[in-house]
Amino acid sequence: MSNERAETAGGERALLLLANLLTTGELPEGDRAAPVSSGGAALLRRIDRRLYLHAFPGQPELTWEPGPEMRPDAPRARAHGIVIRWPDRLVRYAVAPRRNGTPAADGAKQRLRGDTAYDLVLLGSETTPGQRAGVGTMRRGLSWYHLDELLRATAVTHPTEADRIDEVIACLREEQLVDTDDEPAVSHDGAPALPPTWLADAIEVGRATAADGRVRALDVPLLTKPQARAAEAEVRATLDELPTGPMVEVWCWRCSFASRALTRSGKHTGIELRFTRRDQRQPHPFGSRER
Q1: 111 vs 26, 118, 248, 262, CA distance in Å?
Q2: Whole-angstrom Cα distance, residue 103 to residue 117?
Q3: How far apart are CA 285 and CA 6, in angstroms?
Q4: Is-contact 134 105, C-beta < 8 A?
Q5: What is the pLDDT of residues 66-123, one digit of tens each?
Q6: Rounded Cα–Cα distance for residues 37 and 225 (Å)
Q7: Which of 72, 89, 91 is nearest to 81 (CA)?
Q8: What pLDDT score does 26 carry?
Q9: In degrees rounded to 5, what are phi and psi of residue 34?
Q10: pLDDT by residue (tens digit) across 16-27?
Q11: How many helices (H) and strands (E) does the chain have?
C-alpha cells in the first residue's frame, strides 16, 4: 500500500472512532439521526470555536454515512463521512483527499432543508478560512494535530468520555497521522504552534486557581497579541463549561517596565496567560493587562 493510501485509510479509521465517540450508543443506520453525547457536543463546540471563532447554539444530532464495505470491526474500515445536524446548519466531516478532489457531498446535500447552512470540514487538512466548495457549500480544514489538541482538552472536562477519547488519540499515533515530535511549525495566525496539551494544561491551571485562589500563569510560549487573545478566548469558553469555571478570571499579562513573569515562557516572550480567582482579585503591580 502506498503512503498516500495508507494515510487515507488511517484517517478513515480515525473518523470511524470519532463517530463512535460522538454518539451516545450505536451508530445510526440509513437516514436516522442519533443524539450526540455530552462530551461529543463539547468537542464539536471546541472545533467550531477553532474554525468559526464562536460556537453554534442548540443540541446536535449525528447521521453516519458509511462507505462501501463498511464493517465497524474492520481494522481498515472505510468511512465516507459524519454529518452533524445543528438547528440551523449541517456540517459534514470527511477525511481530506490526498490528491485533488473533494469528498462526495451528495448525502449531506439531500438532508438540507430550507435555508440550512452546509459546511464541509476536511480532517487532515490545515486549518483555513472558509472556502467555497460548490453551490451552498463552505469548505474548511482541521489538521489531525489540532483535533488531537481538542480531544485532550475534552478528556479533561469530560472524564467519563476519556476512554473513548484515548482510543481516537491512540489511533492518530498508530496510523502516524500525528507525531508528538512533529509539531506544526506555525499556527493559523503565523505564530509558532502551541504544544498539543496546552488547552488541557490550562484547564488544570484554572481548576487549581479556583481551589486555592493563587494567581497562576500558563507556561506556554505566546509570541503575538492575536495568538494570546485567541488562547484567552478559548480557555475562557472552555472553563465556562466547568462548575468552578465562572470563579476564575483569565487574562493576558504583558511585561511592563517593572514587571515580573511567573513562568519560563513568560520571561522569554513577555506575554502570559494568567488565572485569578474572582473573589480574591488583587491589584497586579508586576505587569499590565493586555487589552
Answers
A1: 21, 10, 42, 52
A2: 18
A3: 55
A4: yes
A5: 665 444 454 444 447 899 998 888 899 999 875 545 554 444 444 444 555 678 899 9
A6: 35
A7: 91
A8: 77
A9: -120, 145
A10: 999 999 997 778
A11: 8, 11
For residues 271 and 222, what is the distance between their CA atoms, to the nearest angstrom? Answer: 6
pLDDT < 70 regions, the chain: 1-8, 66-79, 98-117, 127-137, 180-192, 257-258, 280-291
Neighbours of 279 (CB within 10 A): 8
Exposure of 193 in the CB half-sphere (CA atoms within 13 A): 18
Element (H, E) at 55: none
Residue 29 pLDDT: 77
Q: What type of residue sits at position 5?
A: R
What three-state secondary structure class fits 152?
helix
Residues recorded for the chain: 291
C-alpha cell at 159: 472524564
CA-nearest of 186, 285, 189, 207 to 250 is 207
C-alpha cell at 267: 520571561
C-alpha cell of residue 95 = 477525511
- Other C-beta atoms closer than 10 Å to the C-beta of 95 total 25
Q: Report which of 143, 167, 145, 140 is spatially closest to residue 155, judged by C-alpha positions.
A: 167
Bridge partners for 149 per DSSP: none
Beta strand spans in 191-267 (E): 216-218, 248-254
H/E element, 38? helix 38-52
| Beta pairing class for 288-289 and 216-218 | unpaired
